Amino acid sequence: MSQDPNGTDWYARQQGDRVWPEQPRTVLRPDDQSWRHPADPGPAPGPVEPAPHTPYEHAQPPGEPTTAWPPQFGAPQSGAPQPPPPQPQPPQPSGPPPGSVAWLQQHYPAPGDRPAPPPEAPYQPPQYPGQPQYPGQPPYPGQPQYPGQPGQPPFVEPVSAFAPRPPGASAPEPPVAAPAKTQKPVRVALLAGGATALVALVVIVAMLFGRPAGGAAGEQDPRPSDGAVRFLEAVGAGDSARALSLQQQQPKDRTLLTDAVLREARQRAPISQIRVTQETPTEVELTYRLGESEVRGRFVPAKQPDGSYKVERGTTTVQVTRPRSIPVLFNGVKLETNEVEAFPGAYEMSTGMANITFTDPQFTVSGPTSFPRLAPAVTLTDAGRKAMLDATRGALDGCMAAKEVNPQNCPQLVKLEPNQRPDNNTVRWELMEDPLVNQVPKLSINDDTTAELRLTVKARLTVTVLTDGRPGTVTGQEMTFPTRAVAPMTGSEVTARFVN
């Protein structure tokens, strides 16, 4: 039997021998877990010292129910309607707690985000070791469940980010920001600006240096320059037939319009780097390299019924003032007239002879408007000059060996009196000095096929002369003979003679 604070059983004595049974008591302590709301964080685990147990007993009148003091929170009260006992809850599906970051990522994934992580274990209230349990303490009655309003989503109890996690549960993942949207308008604007700048740069380069012509024809809409570009490409490739097919007006003379002539032109100076510098419906100007030189050619475009373009005329007429007796060859082809058609390119005039050539043999044709007019001048080649000197020396040696006072085709010219008769067996010529030193033979003004050499021959003559039948001797008489050595240079062998 419990004792009162005074240690006396005075109330029992007042009631006689009647003793009331001891009732269970519930002490409300701050660390009691029965009254804590499930959403509130629990106390930190640690040793718990039991509160001092001070029983208070109150005698109850007869017929009254026994109550415990102080009253327990949630304990059944007499005379008040009691809520129904808690019903067993159906098992909850596994998954993260509603409202958590993992639950939001699982139900509302961001576009393009990684797959949601696997569902976490169901949430369990934390259990702390060492928490004393008190017998006879009724559980906290469950909250009554109220049906949801029509059209209203079920209530989801928020979960505190600082709520303690059950042992073994993984930490909630931090919020993952949705990927930033691609700045498509900005990117499109940047691309458009870059394209505009590139087009402007191409236009400026084309204006300064000309539009590159290689491959442009045929890839876009027909342009007036297409015919001129294709024509020059065919000429540069040595294809005379294709070049002629791209020309509207067909030339009558085709002496030089052959693949052989174009092949010679390409070996001398190939055509490259064709560029369009000016272009109108009536005229096209092209700049291209001819060997190491840059030339310009102007062409008149000729539009065809199918929309393509040719050139009105691609060749040009070359006028030549030919020498009277010297043949003229262009790139190895002999001319028969003074006017001839030629493709654009590099040409070299030649005579076809070893000893004679032209002083300015090379010329170019840049286009149909160049109209070259040529008056080639001839000269001796190095081989021709040497041949003339050698022939002159040979002729002079023969003259010095002659047994005559006045040998034929020689520089010696001795005047004799009518009563004088030389004895040819006694004639002896001796050359005093070499007349060919520093001499340069040239072609004759009157005949461009003949080389000439003006010189002075000095010699001594020894001869016996009969004067009126009486012999007399001339010994070592010095004589000077101005003369001119000439030799035709058209043959393979050169033979000189002297002309006084």
Short description:
With 500 residues, the chain is of the alpha+beta class.
Task: Please characterize this protein's 3D structure.
By secondary structure, the protein is an alpha+beta fold. Among the domains are: 211-380; 382-499, no CATH class. The protein is built from 7 helices and 20 strands. Strands 16, 17, 18, 19 and 20 form a 5-stranded antiparallel sheet that branches. The chain has a 4-stranded antiparallel sheet with strand order 1-2-3-4, sandwiched between helices. The model is unreliable at 1-5, 26-35, 50-69, 128-166, 174-182 and 214-218 (pLDDT under 50). Keywords: Membrane, Transmembrane, Transmembrane helix. The chain crosses the membrane at residues 188-210. Residues 28-39 have a biased composition (Basic and acidic residues).
For the biggest sheet, the summary is: 5 strands, antiparallel
Oligomer: single chain
The total of helices stands at: 7
* Secondary-structure content class: alpha+beta
- Name the shape in a single word: elongated
Taking pLDDT < 50 over at least 5 consecutive residues as the criterion, the unreliable ranges are 1-5, 26-35, 50-69, 128-166, 174-182, 214-218
- Range of helix content: 10-25%
Average predicted confidence as pLDDT: 75
How far apart, in Å, are the first and last alpha carbons?
182 Å
Say how many strands there are: 20
Biased composition (Basic and acidic residues): 28-39
Keywords: Membrane, Transmembrane, Transmembrane helix
Region (Disordered): 1-178
Biased composition (Low complexity): 70-80
